[in-house]
């Protein structure tokens, strides 16, 4: 949604916000600003917000879809919980890898800032990978202990790979 911000010099009132661009046919200045001379500018955040929202929604809908598939399965609750946790770790790893790629491509960052953020993201990714490995090991041990039939094992494998 486009946002217009109007600023006043040395005024104690809060600046008005308009969702109409200045070139629209409606009165684009708030009523209180008509008598004073003000500087104004227009900021269109639409593409940026849409991109962030879209990426976030895709990740969330993908994770929700995986969790729904897991919930719909005929597996015991303990296995379902492990499978959900594995899906969450995988999603977090993907998000952090995307953040890492974004930081690497961000030309606005200084070399020092970039290195610091890259190091932090790599540590987070490493932590999630460790947690994912532990959850996968726990899943394997749980499946072995439960002595599941071939159909249930196939269902676990299908859900863990999706």
TrEMBL record:
Stretches for region Disordered: 1-38
Question: Composition bias, kind Low complexity: at what positions?
Answer: 7-29
Sorted keywords for this record are: Coiled coil
Domain of life the protein comes from? Bacteria
Q: Which residues form a coiled coil?
A: 79-138
The name under which this protein is listed is Chemotaxis protein
> What is the protein's species of origin?
Idiomarina rhizosphaerae
